[in-house]
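Re: the request from the purification team.
They wanted to know what the chain is likely to look like in 3D before they choose a buffer screen. I agreed to run a prediction and write the result into the notebook, where they can find it.
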Amino acid sequence: MAGIKERCEASFAEFLEAIDGVTEAEAGAFRIPNWPTHEWHAGEDGSIAGLAWHVAVWKGVYLSALRTGSFGDRSRMRPDEDTWAGRTDWLRRTHASLMEYLARLEASGVETLTVDNRERRLSAIFADDFTEHDRYHAAQVWYLRQRYRAEHGE
């Protein structure tokens, strides 16, 4: 379990750095209404705002798994206010809740949880794909920011 929270925090810091200073217009640029769905789809629509939604939802999914033993219904996870500021606030709050819960689990010495009727090690729940999740999407944000600047002469 050691190191999971720290790795998640470092990855999230990179995502926050990538979205720092993004405007509402920049966040919504390149949105595609009929973005193709897939097994892990949640919020993606080709935009930075969609990536922020996606990252927040998956933090909520994992928080639900830790709290309730079920990954939860990601279609019901959404910000209080669907604006860029609302999405980033929701993202930060969801991340903080997840990290707080992880810290409590770590302090209690819990090594395994039952999630979706299967006993799982926390280290398996938070395997590399999750701890690196935000970093992966930060790279996509940087790309979209460059594209926006190139197309808008900024």
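For the purification team: The CA atoms of residues 55 and 71 lie 15 Å apart.
Please add any questions underneath this entry.
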